[in-house]
UniProtKB/TrEMBL annotation:
Gene Ontology biological process: phosphate ion transport; regulation of DNA-templated transcription
Record-listed 4-aspartylphosphate modification sites: D54
Keyword Phosphoprotein: yes
Locations listed in the record: Cytoplasm
Name assigned to this protein: Phosphate regulon transcriptional regulatory protein PhoB
Native source organism of the sequence: Methylocaldum marinum
Length: 230
């Protein structure tokens, strides 16, 4: 199974480096950034299994970014552990109220942090059960973020993967370009609808290498549908 992806959002260099080291030693795949803007960009490249988020960040606070994230359909289910120097009960409640899954107060030991991470991942089922979908000869392994056809690994960009994952989990239904933008890119994304057409063409071209391009069908005047039935 592939490594668990963790996004660390912490503005203090020393703490960010320490967190990265601890997580990498535990065989996690780590992306570490210093603020909410960089974190949002990181999400466009890869959706993590867990976010470690500092309470106080420059510009947009960690609490406010978490609140926005939890309202986003695309990212709302990503578990979040808040990291902060605040220890008062009222602040802990505030962090959990915005949707954080747990809360750890500085200073903390690596052992405590890893215990909290494992507990949150178990509760969220991000690393507890397998998920496998197969339609039209296309196999999607949700846990490993892996797509294969005829036992061959299919190389996809993060956007192509999210698009194919959405289609595979919502087969035989027609979706407009606007709906696909909301579901795959997120409501907060300022992307033109024709971008959907571009990625559909790219995905079809990749699937054509395995004679599977016809599963993504154009429904004239409406949008697109994923179906193994022509």
């Amino acid at each position: 199974m592939s490594a668990i992806n963790v996004l660390v959002v912490e503005d203090e260099d020393a703490i960010r480096e320490m967190l990265s080291l601890v997580l990498e030693q535990a065989d996690f795949s780590v992306r570490a950034v210093a603020d909410g803007h960089q974190a949002q960009l990181a999400l466009h490249e890869l959706i993590p299994d867990l976010i470690l988020l500092d309470w106080m960040l420059p510009g947009l606070s960690g609490v406010e970014w978490a609140r926005r994230l939890k309202k986003d359909k695309q990212y709302g289910e990503i578990p979040i552990i808040m990291i902060t120097a605040r220890g008062e009960e009222e602040d802990k409640i505030r962090g959990l109220d915005v949707g954080a899954d747990d809360y750890v107060t500085k200073p903390f030991s690596p052992r405590e942090l890893m215990a909290r991470i494992k507990a949150v991942l178990r509760r969220s089922n991000k690393h507890g059960k397998g998920g496998r979908i197969e339609i039209g000869g296309i196999v999607l392994d949700i846990d490993e973020h892996r797509v294969s056809i005829a036992d061959s690994h299919v190389l996809l960009s993060p956007t192509e993967y999210r698009l194919l994952e959405f289609f595979l989990t919502h087969p035989d239904k027609v979706y407009s370009r606007s709906q696909l933008l909301d579901q795959v890119w997120g409501r907060s994304s300022f992307i033109e609808e024709r971008t959907v057409d571009v990625h559909i063409r790219r995905l079809r071209k990749i699937l054509a290498e395995y004679d599977r391009e016809e599963v993504i069908q154009t429904v004239r005047g409406f949008g697109y549908r994923f179906s193994e039935s022509l």
